[in-house]
Amino acid sequence: MHGKILPSSGGRQVAGVVHAWSLNGTDGARVSTGHVIKARMRYEIIKDDKGEPWRVTTHGYMYSVEDGAGQELLAAHWHPDTAGAHKRPHMHFPDRVVSPEGGFLAREPISTGRITFEEVVRFAVRNLGATPLRDDWENHLLLAEVPHKLYRSWHEAPDEADRP
């Protein structure tokens, strides 16, 4: 899986503006099994209220896995600023995912906790056959993911930050 995070203009240094990044633009990253991982995120660089000068806050994300033919197999979304009914993090599964009894498993999104991009990469390596570019890939994912998990303001639902 070769991927490059492509930030919007100013997305590495301009504070106070909502930016976006995408994985290889709209193409996503193809793994060795032919699956395609697509990812994009909206974020903002803000002043930190916990002692550091700056931090990044997430405004939403959309991750998906497609098969080699371009059919979406699953999608993880959090898009609180859109008009849709699903403001919490959630996953979508296509209608063709069926139970052993023949019924659809899920037509409506399933609520989830927050999903990091690192979790998506880990899923691709462990479950889709993505080949890591380095032997210590898991350590690098952890180094990127741990600060986010330590300092995020919520995990399950955005309104956690407002609770006592």
Secondary-structure topology with pairs:
Layout: E1 5-7, E2 18-23, E3 29-30, E4 36-47, E5 54-66, E6 72-78, E7 90-92, E8 110-111, H1 117-127, H2 137-151
Antiparallel strand pairs: 1-2, 2-4, 3-4, 4-5, 5-6, 6-7, 7-8
Q: How would you characterize this protein structure?
A:
The chain is an alpha+beta fold. It has one domain. Helices cover 16% and strands 29% of the residues. The protein has two helices and eight strands, in the order ββββββββαα. The protein has helices spanning 117-127, 137-151; strands at residues 5-7, 18-23, 29-30, 36-47, 54-66, 72-78, 90-92, 110-111. Strands 1, 2, 3, 4, 5, 6, 7 and 8 form an eight-stranded antiparallel β-sheet that branches. A hairpin with a 5-residue loop joins strand 3 and strand 4 (36-47). Helix 1 (117-127) runs antiparallel to helix 2 (137-151). The longest helix is centred in the C-terminal third of the chain and has 15 residues, at 137-151. The chain is globular and about 50 Å long. The chain starts with a strand and ends in a 13-residue tail after the last helix. The model has no long low-confidence stretch (mean pLDDT 85).
